[in-house]
Amino acid sequence: MRYIEVIIKIFDYLHIKTIYVNFKLLPFKDALKLPIVVSRKTKIKSLDGKVLIVTKVRTAMIKIGFGDVGIFDYRYERTILEVKGQIIFKGTSVIGKGSRICIGEEGVLELGNNFLIAARTTIICFKNIRIGADCVFSWENIIMDTDFHQIHSSGIEMNVPEPILIGNHVWIGMRCTILKGSKISEGCVIAAHTLISTDLKAKQAIYGGSPTKIIKQNITWN
Q1: Where are the domains of the chain?
Q2: Which of 29, 89, 91, 186 has its CA 20 to 30 A from that of 61?
Q3: pLDDT (tens digit per residue) in 5-50
């Protein structure tokens, strides 16, 4: 049984989408190592952008559409990948099943080393989203640096996209919404269902609620 599971895993890793994504987004010498592994249940909407890996390139260091959370039925879940801008990987990453990554033409998404999305999280980047090392995102989160539709007053656009900055070692609980202009300091934990749209300056703190407030300070988490 174990042998069959290994064969299935190898088949998933060497699926045609994996080969296509690597050779479409990476320089040829990097693509040969197949550093990006894409699950069969990933819908590729656009690969007009590019990927930059700034650390040593290794096989299967970036996994898209893998992982498991027991409450989801993955028979009907699809990961969505739309890359018109740029993704910068600074190490290993796992983007869990059912997640949706959308990078606009001018967008730059930067992911630190040891980045993890458990499942079904949406990242929409039209300007810049920068996430530090050792960050964990739970499921059904939304992170977006744009409002999509423009609002004008006296001919001036009021709601231009703004960068999102997330420090090292941050844990985002389930069903959080992180909007443009947000900043989260290192070592923080964001409680489930939190709405963030401001600068959370305190480090090593638990934040929660809407509006966001500090629940506990001087914390550590594993």
Answers
A1: 2-217
A2: 186
A3: 554 555 566 678 999 999 999 999 999 999 999 998 999 999 999 9
